[in-house]
Specification:
Blueprint (H helix, E strand, L loop, with lengths): L6 E5 L3 H13 L4 E5 L2 H9 L6 E5 L1 E2 L2 E2 L1 H9 L4 E5 L16 E3 L4 H9 L8 E2 L4 E2 L1
Parallel strand pairs: 1-2, 1-3, 3-6, 6-7
Antiparallel strand pairs: 4-5, 8-9
Length: 133
């Protein structure tokens, strides 16, 4: 999977890192970037039933875990890449063993590599019926 033409959702609580991710996304010719800085904003975005093709989610934003929101995105079939400033342990995040985890600091090559490892077989979520189609 690659970023070109994708709609990207980003949860990042550090403003400058969020701007850097937007720059990386623009260099990769994404269609759009939706940047949120809190888990609450992420949950509101999910509740709005807006669509994205890939999500880059910080594991913990402003001291709040994003894992519940990440689970909701997975139920919608959205491929996820996690980022974290904490030590990256082998095996990834509990309950998300197959989700790529990128440690901070990172650059374009680490993000592109993580996205390239994602499955391109995204399932579609019908928000009105709650079914994967």
């Amino acid at each position: 999977m690659e970023l070109k033409g994708m709609r990207l959702l980003v949860l990042e609580d550090e403003y400058l890192i969020g701007l850097e991710l937007e720059r990386i996304a623009e260099e990769c010719d994404v269609q759009s970037v939706n940047l949120v800085s809190t888990v609450s904003e992420l949950l509101n975005w999910i509740d709005s039933e807006a669509e994205c093709d890939i999500a880059i989610i910080e594991v913990e934003a402003h001291g709040v875990s994003s894992l519940q929101a990440a689970s909701r995105l997975q139920l919608r079939g959205v491929p996820i890449v996690f980022t974290t400033a904490y030590d990256v342990k082998s095996g990834g995040i509990d309950g998300f063993a197959t989700v790529p985890l990128v440690g901070k600091p990172y650059g374009k090559s680490q993000i592109v590599k993580a996205v390239a490892g994602l499955s391109s077989s995204k399932k579609r979520f019908n928000g009105s019926s709650g079914e994967l189609v």
